[in-house]
């Protein structure tokens, strides 16, 4: 209000207005405090009073405090690094599970990166582990690449069978018999496991055979190549044939992750085994969906990726073998179909769900793991006179055999066969191989082959059913329960 005779109006407020403003400010501050409390912002941290100058041992106390601070900082940094690495691993895992195309590419990458390609074959079904596309790709690549077969897991096959397979396969490529060590657990300490060491060899799995022969072969080949760079040896093959175990056995330490689960190796990994030789471990070759269901059950990652039920895979496998041998191997009574087999197997092993119901899914996973893992002994008959595949000619065979010290290889194989403890024929299941398994090496194959594959697969399933069943039926075993009404006699003759 402007008073007369004065230039400026007074700034004085009326008391009511002043009190009103003060009240508003109080309310506002209270609101801020309340919000801060809600967010968890605590009270102001008390200032460190420090060490008074008059305190005795002031220097020591300060030094101790400084050390504690440094230690805490170190701990924080370490934790941050661990978190960062975990995050990175998680991202890589997610990326690997998403990408399907590069998986097919990786086999080609390994071939391109190698001077020598080792195709690892499971001795229980060597023909089934061969991938014609991969072999052809090696032969087509420039640079005089060599292909070598390694017959792994020979300890799970009768001796005569291994010998026959070596004779059969060496008509095409040089073959080396191998038994990888399945008990290398140490990532740092190199502990060569010697076969004659009775203490270590008690469990059979620890010993490794064929590694010295392979080392000698590769070193002598590396010496012949006259290049300064080390010899690159690509290890390829279908999942679970023992590629990583072979690398570990050659190195003597756990250099690559290996295990019963299929598809453990997700990327290429280089491992120096000698000064001039390095091995390249690789993920398993992707099996084409056009393969017969039995080959897919053993070689593909369909079950792991959830594209096929384990029960269906077991059903397919059981059809390929003799029922009596399965009964003897698993020590279970007669069964009429795969579901009954799995129920008996689950009860025998104690795989039970709530209420004592047999967990057939778990039983099926264990059964499948037996067939590709390190335990079950089964074998396929080697063909008497096998003709060369279309991509091989006598000249190519001679070229592939040249450069290797074949007498040394023969002697090495004989020594390996003398050392390994083989199962006898009677305790090994005889299995009917479905022949070489087609693999996907090109990204284009995946998109091109899928529709055709589906049709072929259906056809194959149908022919299987005609062969093994009196009436073709379509049973979804995954959904079947114990009281599902279907003809039990249709599965087995
Ligand atoms: N009994 C026996 N088991 C073996 C032998 N070699 C490998 N295994 C087992 O076979 C399983 C598969 O071995 P891996 O070395 O992981 O096979 P991989 O080919 O690298 O498999 P992916 O990385 O999934 O492609 C493991 O359980 C090994 O213990 C062998 O010579 N004898
Ligand atoms: Mg591996």
TrEMBL record:
<dbReference type="InterPro" id="IPR014813">
    <property type="entry name" value="Gnl3_N_dom"/>
</dbReference>
<dbReference type="Pfam" id="PF01926">
    <property type="entry name" value="MMR_HSR1"/>
</dbReference>
<dbReference type="GO" id="GO:0050793">
    <property type="term" value="P:regulation of developmental process"/>
</dbReference>
<feature type="compositionally biased region" description="Basic and acidic residues">
    <location>
        <begin position="57"/>
        <end position="104"/>
    </location>
</feature>
<comment type="function">
    <text>May play a role in regulating cellular proliferation.</text>
</comment>
<dbReference type="GO" id="GO:0051239">
    <property type="term" value="P:regulation of multicellular organismal process"/>
</dbReference>
<dbReference type="InterPro" id="IPR023179">
    <property type="entry name" value="GTP-bd_ortho_bundle_sf"/>
</dbReference>
<feature type="region of interest" description="Disordered">
    <location>
        <begin position="1"/>
        <end position="107"/>
    </location>
</feature>
<keyword id="KW-0539">Nucleus</keyword>
<dbReference type="InterPro" id="IPR050755">
    <property type="entry name" value="TRAFAC_YlqF/YawG_RiboMat"/>
</dbReference>
<dbReference type="InterPro" id="IPR030378">
    <property type="entry name" value="G_CP_dom"/>
</dbReference>
<protein>
    <recommendedName>
        <fullName>Guanine nucleotide-binding protein-like 3</fullName>
    </recommendedName>
</protein>
<feature type="domain" description="CP-type G">
    <location>
        <begin position="103"/>
        <end position="288"/>
    </location>
</feature>
<dbReference type="Pfam" id="PF08701">
    <property type="entry name" value="GN3L_Grn1"/>
</dbReference>
<keyword id="KW-0547">Nucleotide-binding</keyword>
<dbReference type="InterPro" id="IPR027417">
    <property type="entry name" value="P-loop_NTPase"/>
</dbReference>
<feature type="compositionally biased region" description="Basic residues">
    <location>
        <begin position="1"/>
        <end position="46"/>
    </location>
</feature>
<dbReference type="GO" id="GO:0005730">
    <property type="term" value="C:nucleolus"/>
</dbReference>
<keyword id="KW-0342">GTP-binding</keyword>
<dbReference type="GO" id="GO:0005525">
    <property type="term" value="F:GTP binding"/>
</dbReference>
<dbReference type="InterPro" id="IPR006073">
    <property type="entry name" value="GTP-bd"/>
</dbReference>
<keyword id="KW-0175">Coiled coil</keyword>
């Amino acid at each position: 209000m402007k008073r007369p005779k004065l230039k400026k109006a007074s700034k004085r407020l009326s008391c009511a207005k002043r009190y009103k403003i003060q009240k508003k400010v109080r309310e506002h501050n209270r609101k801020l405090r309340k919000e801060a409390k809600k967010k968890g912002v605590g009270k102001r941290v008390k200032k460190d009073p420090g060490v008074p100058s008059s305190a005795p041992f002031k220097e020591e106390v300060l030094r101790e405090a400084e050390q504690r601070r440094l230690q805490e900082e170190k701990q924080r940094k370490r934790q941050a690094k661990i978190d960062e690495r975990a995050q990175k691993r998680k991202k890589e895992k997610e990326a690997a599970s998403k990408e399907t195309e590069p998986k097919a590419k990786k086999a080609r990458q390994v071939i391109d990166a190698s001077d020598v390609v080792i195709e690892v074959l499971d001795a229980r079904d060597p023909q089934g582990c061969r991938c014609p596309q991969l072999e052809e790709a090696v032969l087509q690549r420039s640079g005089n690449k060599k292909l070598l077969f390694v017959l792994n897991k020979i300890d799970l096959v009768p001796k005569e069978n291994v010998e026959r397979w070596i004779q059969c396969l060496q008509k095409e490529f040089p073959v080396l018999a191998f038994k990888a060590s399945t008990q290398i657990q140490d990532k740092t300490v190199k502990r060569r496991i010697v076969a004659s060491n009775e203490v270590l060899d008690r469990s059979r799995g620890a010993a490794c055979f064929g590694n010295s022969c392979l080392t000698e072969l590769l070193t002598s080949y590396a010496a012949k190549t006259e290049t300064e760079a080390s010899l690159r040896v690509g290890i390829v093959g279908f999942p679970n044939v023992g590629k990583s175990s072979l690398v570990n056995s050659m190195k003597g330490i756990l250099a690559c992750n290996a295990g019963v689960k299929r598809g453990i190796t997700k990327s290429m990994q280089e491992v120096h085994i000698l000064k001039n030789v390095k091995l390249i471990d690789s993920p398993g070759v992707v099996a084409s969906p056009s393969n017969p269901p039995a080959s897919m059950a053993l070689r593909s990652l369909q079950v792991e990726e959830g594209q096929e039920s384990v029960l269906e895979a077991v059903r397919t496998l059981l059809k390929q073998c003799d029922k009596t041998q399965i009964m003897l191997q698993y020590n279970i009574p007669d069964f009429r179909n795969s579901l009954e087999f799995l129920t008996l197997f689950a009860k025998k092993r104690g795989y039970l769900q709530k209420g004592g119901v047999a967990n057939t899914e778990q039983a099926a996973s264990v059964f499948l793991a037996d067939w590709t893992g390190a335990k079950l002994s089964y074998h396929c008959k080697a063909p008497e006179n096998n003709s060369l595949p279309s991509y091989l000619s006598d000249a190519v065979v001679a070229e592939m055999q040249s450069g290797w010290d074949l007498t040394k290889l023969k002697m090495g194989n004989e020594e390996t066969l003398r050392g390994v403890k083989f199962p006898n024929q009677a305790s090994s299941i005889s299995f009917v191989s479905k022949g070489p398994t087609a693999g996907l090496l090109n990204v284009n194959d995946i998109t091109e082959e899928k529709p055709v594959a589906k049709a072929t697969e259906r056809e194959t399933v149908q022919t299987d059913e005609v062969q093994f069943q009196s009436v073709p039926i379509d049973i979804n075993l995954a959904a079947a329960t114990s009281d599902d009404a279907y003809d039990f006699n249709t599965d087995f003759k």
